[in-house]
Amino acid sequence: MAEITRDVLIVGAGAAGLTAANDLRKAGLSVAVLEARDRVGGRLWTDVIDGAMLEIGGQWVSPDQDALKDAIEELGLETYSRYREGDSVYVGPDGQAHRFTGEMFPVSPETEAVIARITGILDALVAEIDPDKPWEHPNAAEWDSISWDAWLRSQTDDDEAVRNLAFATGSAMLTKPTHSFSLLQSLLMAASAGSYSNLVDADFILDKRVVGGLQQVPLRLAERLGEDVLLNQPVRSLEWSDDGIVATTDDLTVRARYAILAHAPILYNRISFVPPLPRRQHQLHQHLSMGFVIKVHAVYDRPFWREQGLSGTAFSPYELSHEAYDNTNHGDERGTLVGFVSDANADGVFELSAEERKERILESLSHYYGPEAKNPVVYYESDWGSEEWTRGAYAASFDLGGLHRYGADLRTPVGPIHFACSDMAGAGYQHVDGAIRMGHLVAANIVDARREAGAPESIG
């Protein structure tokens, strides 16, 4: 078995791990990045399917995502705005498609007033939340003990208002049923974007894309590290003590002073830790789980919806695909729609055959865009729930009551082992921006720890 020695071992070649590795290199430390997959990027994956370039994973850049924007600029990448000219579409409880412009759905004046009132309450609550420390709010325990759905229904008996308010953090972001996570978890999701209003504003959250795909961020970061990024190397065991770590894969041993686990925390149990992680970590990870969403890509010979004066932006808490957007690639004559099937809806469609699932999903898209939506030239489903090294999407969140109990322990190092990924970010939580922020943070923490320890020169 081959053996290498480095200052820092990074497990996971996603945006967090590769950011940390580059920062540590700049600080004069030697690194090795072990990646279980046969590619870099983690939950960023740009691929060509049947001749169409598709963003299988994350793809959007919003105005508040400074860490991501800085990385894009520093790596020499270009961005372009998502197409949004024309009317949006909303399907209400009557099953009819209603065209609208602006942020507010075309609901009754009474429902609109309820949505506006509760949005104001939520923005005020979110303003009190520190996204890095939501558990420190005086009401954290109380807000973590009531579900997002139950809290909304305590504010109004208008079901349409509740559904529209709920899906921004439920189906759309945490991708879990709204009864399964807390008000506090929902407030964290909103605080990570600056406000609840930001989170529900598609023009804000889904603002720009990267020309050629967002996976270029980790690809270019990995290029700088060269042979220090090793693919197809799932870590099987990790021995740790105050003196450092010894990690083993099927054919490699890595000795290092520090380790960074830079992958989804639900995968920590795939590694055998010697000695075991502390009981606090064991408890914490039993209360974290991934959401579940299918990202549906439908490519057409042209963006036909634009001919109807539609922007491609569509919403409905009553549809199988609860939201959809124009996802046409930069400079592409063909048109692409991207739709999302989330939480309990996603559970149900995998009980169907692939052909029936496709038919049901395209039928839902046709309720927004008309019958032409049923006939794409390329159709593909991003199913991250079946990915061996991800097991869900978009990220991990706590069950009811878990955030205030264990949130403070998410980033706490265990001896020489540090943790970094989008799942534990404050600003940019669950986004690439958050992954990059966590990569910078943990690299700085390790540099500081070495300095305080009076560490000798770099090794490896």
TrEMBL record:
Keywords: Oxidoreductase. Coiled coil: none annotated. This is FAD-dependent oxidoreductase. Belongs to the flavin monoamine oxidase family. Pfam families: Amino_oxidase. Residues 16-446 form the Amine oxidase domain. Its cofactor is FAD. It comes from Microbacterium sufflavum. InterPro entries: Amino_oxidase (IPR002937), FAD/NAD-bd_sf (IPR036188), Flavin_amine_oxidase (IPR001613), Flavin_MAO (IPR050703). PANTHER family: AMINE OXIDASE, AMINE OXIDASE [FLAVIN-CONTAINING] B. It comes from the Bacteria. Gene3D superfamilies: FAD/NAD(P)-binding domain (3.50.50.60).
